[in-house]
Amino acid sequence: MLRTLCPTSSRYPCRHLARIIHRDFFKTALSSSAIPALTPNFSTINFNDRTSVLTNAKTFEDLGVAAYNGVGFRIQSTLYLQLAGKIVSVEARHAAYIRFLLNQPFLDSSVVNPTTSTEISLVPAQVIPIANKFITGYPLVAPALGA
Hints:
Order of helices and strands: HHEHHHE
Number of strands: 2
Mean pLDDT: 81
């Protein structure tokens, strides 16, 4: 669906549209448990420096993938699990492309455990402190999920 909405010549608006679709999916899936709208804080990113922008973008993408990996088993609806699997697949492709732009390897120990060869998974208590560095006004708190 997204491919038909996104001309190849302009991918930034499409990535933005993908973010909106992901956000709205979670608002619907979480219903009254959804967090309020967040205000991003990108003040630590030097938007005049390509490496700064791409390195932070890689952080966001990797964090998203690890967060999905860390809570996917908690999704009870097979429909929501299937949709979350599609979203995390998109996030992983974004991360791989950013690595390409940074001339970094497709995979390294920041995304795959070198001992077990499994993808890195983070539980909410690990994700929240990293995410909070980029949020203003409403610091996130990890839900009591037992991990």
